[in-house]
Design a protein that fits this description.
Blueprint lengths: L1 E14 L5 E14 L3 E5 L6 H9 L4 E10 L2 E2 L5 H7 L1 E4 L6 E5 H15 L7 H14 L10 E2 L5 H15 L3 E5 L7 H14 L5 E5 L13 E6 L2 E6 L3 H8 L2 H8 L1
Helix pairs in contact: 5-6
Bound molecules: adenosine-5'-diphosphate (ADP) and magnesium ion (2 copies).
């Protein structure tokens, strides 16, 4: 029961600094994630972690040059970004956008309803949406007045991440990619984001968590940890791998692929 299957994925980014330029970043990524599992990707800066999450979300600046991605048995790379969300994919960006003049509750309701509609679920009117959003916010220990403010405007780093976790809970994804959702969070915010992810855990929900921080893994227990370096997954281990990486760094694993 594979939810996501990435096979020999090669991708390049459109390089704005060079005319017609592109730069090969992913160089043969293989990764399979069954339903219900939590996978973590760690790796040196610049190794292609964010590129992988952008490619999976269908970001227009990234081009797949070869390989395949199957999501619930369907060809993910042929789906529009909207269709990917409807199919159950959710990506929490490294830096969420601020939308001045856009009320957060209205924004979240529009996003929620467009996905619900496309999935054939009942759309929520303003009253029932607020009820649901407040309920979820409470469960996630988020201040409900975040709903009244403009989207991410003047939010602290921690509040932006909380808002993303709230959006994720509203959209009910079956697969979430969190790209350094923990960066810049203090320890309490980190725990709350982790608990938000944990409340979604079920046999129908999988996640791919990209992080530099061992401490996030005090709260989220992964089934597997993968090391992405130089555009490929070079090693896969269990939850203990992060402790080893914290002590020893990536050096040994990089030496192995250099041999
Ligand atoms: P990571 O998330 O692992 O730190 P990224 O996927 O962000 O790595 O970046 C991989 C490589 O691609 C880096 O060398 C980075 O500089 C380069 N890169 C990413 N986006 C662009 C871009 N828009 N233009 C040029 N180079 C880019
Ligand atoms: Mg980085
Ligand atoms: Mg990154």
């Amino acid at each position: 029961n594979m939810l996501l299957e990435i096979k020999n994925l090669h991708a390049s980014v459109i390089d704005d600094t060079v005319e017609n330029g592109s730069k090969q970043i992913l160089k043969g990524v293989n990764l399979s994630i069954p339903a219900g599992e939590t996978h973590v990707i760690m790796g040196p800066n610049g190794s292609g972690k964010s590129t992988l999450s952008y490619v999976l979300s269908g970001h227009p600046s990234y081009k797949v040059t070869s390989g395949q991605v199957w999501f619930k048995g369907e060809n993910l790379l042929e789906m529009s970004p909207d269709d990917r969300a409807v199919a159950g994919l959710f990506l929490a960006f490294q830096s969420p956008v601020e939308l001045p003049g856009v009320n957060n509750a209205n924004f979240l309701r529009t996003a929620t309803n467009s996905v619900r509609k496309a999935r054939g679920q009942e759309e929520l009117d303003a009253v029932s949406f607020l009820k649901l959003a407040r309920q979820l916010a409470k469960k996630l220990s988020f201040p409900t007045d975040m709903l009244k403010r403009n989207v991410n405007v003047g939010f602290s780093g921690g509040e932006k991440k909380r808002n993303e976790v709230l959006q994720m809970s509203l959209l009910q994804p079956s697969f979430a990619i969190l790209d350094e959702t923990d960066s810049g969070l203090d320890i309490d915010a980190l725990r709350i984001v982790a608990e938000g992810v944990n409340t979604l855990q079920s046999s129908d929900f999988s996640s791919l968590i990209i992080t530099h921080h061992q401490r996030l893994l005090d709260y989220i227990k992964p089934d597997y940890i993968h090391i992405l370096a130089r555009g490929r997954i070079i090693h896969t281990g269990g939850a203990d791998l992060s402790l080893q990486l914290e002590k020893e760094g990536y050096g040994r694993f990089l030496d192995e692929i250099d041999e």
